[in-house]
Design a protein that fits this description.
Number of helices: 2
Strand order of the largest sheet: 1-2-3-4-7-8-6-5
Structural class: mainly beta
Largest sheet: 8 strands, mixed, barrel
Helix content: under 10%
Order of helices and strands: HEEEEEEHEE
Oligomer: single chain
Shape: globular
CATH class of one domain: Mainly Beta
CATH topology of one domain: Sortase, Chain: A
Radius of gyration: 16 Å
Distance between the termini: 33 Å
Number of strands: 8
CATH architecture of one domain: Beta Barrel
């Protein structure tokens, strides 16, 4: 039987949520709210036989030492129009976890969104996300007091119209993380691209 959270994850996929990075130079650099897709497994994705999934626990903080990110994490759901919510444009910008995706450390792709810019407030929390490299550490602090520690496996910049839905939201056989923000050169129409960081669970610490 499909769980309610899994149904909501699939519902967002069916809604075909294209990435929106905000319009114009005064808008925030919103991340992609692209479709979670149809959860198609990829044979190219390795299965982590030695990596044990963690119990479900909501993320409350995200730390990325390589780019000096240390942010609270809010919960995001679906907006009234069926698109994935994004964090609000505020001076105190923070990342947001899509609550219909797995929590960090559970098997599957946990999705966290963040702005690259926040309008007149300047840089967003994920301003330097594209500067991450393979092996860089990402720590998700969880509500139950533990941490899920991930290592970056790849960083991709893609056009919004070519958002890799299956790669981001598709089923995987191990705990993984997706960090999403905007990319490219800002124009009056907003940002044309998305930066997507793919990461896999390495270890958990108390």
């Amino acid at each position: 039987m499909t769980s309610p959270s899994r149904r909501a994850f699939t519902t967002a996929a069916v809604a075909s949520l294209l990435v929106s990075c905000g319009g114009g130079r005064q808008a925030g650099g919103q991340p992609s709210t692209a479709s979670p897709g149809t959860s198609t497994p990829s044979s190219s994705r390795p299965s982590a036989k030695t990596t044990h999934a963690l119990a479900r626990s909501v993320p409350v903080r995200l730390q990325i030492p390589a780019i000096e990110v240390d942010t609270p994490v809010m919960r995001l759901g679906l907006a009234s129009d069926g698109t994935v919510q994004v964090p609000p444009i505020t001076a105190h910008d923070q990342a947001g976890w899509y609550r219909h995706s797995p929590t960090p450390g559970q098997t599957g792709p946990s999705v966290i969104l963040g702005h690259v810019t926040v309008g007149a407030y300047g840089d967003g929390v994920f301003r330097h996300l594209g500067g991450l490299h393979r092996g860089d550490r990402i720590v998700a602090r969880l509500e139950n007091g533990t941490s899920a520690v991930f290592g970056v496996t790849s960083v991709r910049t893609v056009a919004k119209a070519e958002f890799p839905t299956d790669d981001v939201y598709g089923d995987v056989g191990r705990p993984e993380l997706r960090l999403i923000t905007c990319g490219g050169t800002l124009t009056d129409d907003g940002y044309p691209d998305n930066v997507i960081v793919f990461a896999a669970l390495g270890k958990a610490s108390p």
